[in-house]
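QA checklist item 7 of 12: single-chain prediction sanity check.
[x] sequence parsed
[x] length recorded as 327
[x] structure emitted
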Amino acid sequence: MRLLVLGGTVFLSRAVAEEGVRRGHDVVCACRGASGSVPDGARHVEVDRTGPLPVELTGFDAVVDVARQPSWVRRAVERLPDAHWVFISTINVYEDESTPGGRPGTLPLREPVHEDRDLASDPDAYGPMKVACERLVTDGVASAMVVRPGLIVGPGDPTGRFSYWPARLGAAAERPEVLAPGDPADTVQVVDVRDLATWIVDSAEQRRTGDFDGVGPVLPIAELLTQVAEGVGAAPTWTWVPQGALEAQGVEPWDGPRSVPLWLPRPAYDGLTAHDVTPSLEAGLRIRPHAETARDTLAWLRATPDAVVTGLTAEEEAEVLGAVPRP
């Protein structure tokens, strides 16, 4: 199979290119290359997607695109309408983030934004732009699959969100009391980047069509954190800090400075990390144990000193724990 990856240097798109090469496919990565090199065995074609695609980008059996700018997707679709496309979207296309058990076809989509917008000044445009990109693909190519990932995790993660937990629990021998956020029963969903990439290449080979959520099984956060601890060989003492206490201490949800990753305010986000993964599993998505993901992520972090890890610093965690009332 001749596989075009629009991207190929960072996280998911790189994992897709690596998987394609591993299977012996002819893989071309079209990108600027400013974020790093393409995987060994893939061919790099330098592309600035603010302009037309090079004429040499033709004759592909399948295309995988992770773009969020509608103009980029529009030009690529116009150049490559006869290939099978796997477009990587996001669960942020769904307008309803509070209803658990949602899946494609049961949740309303946001109104599309058809023009490119700068997310630094308009971050809320991310989901609506992806809706527009999805429509450009499904309306403009011979056949297509749309994958809407949630939180993608694993080695190479540039966001540092899930990485916070293997890093923190990897230090549990020195700091055994670990702040756990919210309610132990709060739901979470993560998917290993390697599992998602495998499924994407499978789907390109099989020319799978339809819309699917790229998410893992729904778990209570207590269970996920227990699996992470097992994966990194930690035996922490958990101190569960309720949502109100976190908010009172100025702790932010999800990511960024002074945050606790994986924690989201409830009930506003009850649905964001509780999508029904059944259709995706039935379509071939296979999920490895989260303990394995945690183990491999910690190994990658230790081998990559400049890797991003977001979340509370050790001092901030101690400060918050010190303010929590004790029995």
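[x] summary fact logged: DSSP finds ten helices and 15 strands in the chain.
[ ] second reviewer sign-off
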